[in-house]
Amino acid sequence: MIFVIQRVKESSVSIDGEVCGSINKGFMVLIGIGEGDNEAVCDKMVRKLVNMRIFEDENGKTNLGLSDVNGELLLISQFTLYADCKKGNRPSFTQALEPVESERLYNYIVDECKKSIKVVETGRFGADMKVSLVNDGPFTIVLDSEKI
C-alpha cells in the first residue's frame, strides 16, 4: 500500500465540475492499494497517517499531528501509484489490487480514519477526478507499507 501525503492549507476534489470533497488545513492523501494488501496493512498505514507529526509547533519544529491542529483529511484512491514503468513507455498497473477488493479496502481506510479524525472527505472510487490543493511547505511524504 502506498500513501502520498501532502500537507495542505486547503484541498478539494471535483467530479464533472462539482466539488465532492473539500478540506482546510490537513492532509490530502493519494491512496494506492496493491496486490497482497489487507485490513492489517490498512490498520498499520492508518495508524501511521493519523499520528504523523508534520505540523510546526511554536518553535517551528514538526512536532504536531492532525489532532493537535484540528487537521482534516481528504482521501483519494489512485491505482496509478502502482505504475510499473520498467518496460517501454506505457506503464503497467498489474501490481495494483483488482478494483472490487481495492474499493472495499479504500472504504475500510476511510472508515478507520473517521474514528480518530473529525473531518474526513473523499473523492469517488474509480471516477475521473480533478484535485486542487494549496501545498503547505511544500511538505510531501511517500508512505510505503513495505518500508514501515
Question: Any chance you could write out the topology, listing elements then pairs?
Answer:
Elements: E1 2-15, E2 18-23, E3 26-32, H1 39-51, E4 55-56, E5 62-64, E6 72-77, H2 99-114, E7 120-122, E8 130-144
Parallel strand pairs: 3-6, 6-7
Antiparallel strand pairs: 1-2, 1-3, 1-8, 4-5
Helix pairs in contact: 1-2
Q: How is this structure best described in words?
A:
The structure is a single chain. The chain is α/β, with parallel strands linked by helices and 148 residues long. The protein has one domain (2-147): D-tyrosyl-trna(Tyr) Deacylase, Chain: A (3-Layer(bba) Sandwich). Helices cover 20% and strands 38% of the residues. It has 2 helices and 8 strands. Strands 1, 2, 3, 6, 7 and 8 form a 6-stranded mixed beta sheet that branches. Strands 4-5 form a two-stranded antiparallel sheet. Helix 1 (39-51) crosses helix 2. It is globular and about 50 Å long.
Provide a compact summary of the structure:
The chain has helices spanning 39-51, 99-114; strands at 2-15, 18-23, 26-32, 55-56, 62-64, 72-77, 120-122, 130-144. The protein has 148 residues and is an alpha/beta fold.
Write out key terms for the chains shown.
D-tyrosyl-trna(Tyr) Deacylase, Chain: A, globular, 148 residues, alpha/beta, 38% strand, two-stranded antiparallel sheet, 6-stranded mixed sheet, 20% helix
Derived from helix and strand composition plus strand pairing, the structural class reads alpha/beta
How large is the count of helical segments? 2
Low-pLDDT windows of residues: none
Strand residue content: 35-45%
What do we call the CATH topology?
A: D-tyrosyl-trna(Tyr) Deacylase, Chain: A
The CATH first-level class comes to Alpha Beta
Question: Could you tell me the radius of gyration in angstroms?
Answer: 15 Å
Quaternary organization: single chain
The geometry reads as globular
Question: Can you write the helix and strand succession as a string?
Answer: EEEHEEEHEE
Q: Tell me roughly what share of residues is in helical segments.
A: 10-25%
CATH architecture: 3-Layer(bba) Sandwich
The mean pLDDT is 97
- Major sheet characteristics: 6 strands, mixed
List the domain count as a whole number: 1
CATH superfamily: D-tyrosyl-tRNA(Tyr) deacylase
Separation, N- and C-terminal Cα atoms: 11 Å
The number of E-state strands comes to 8
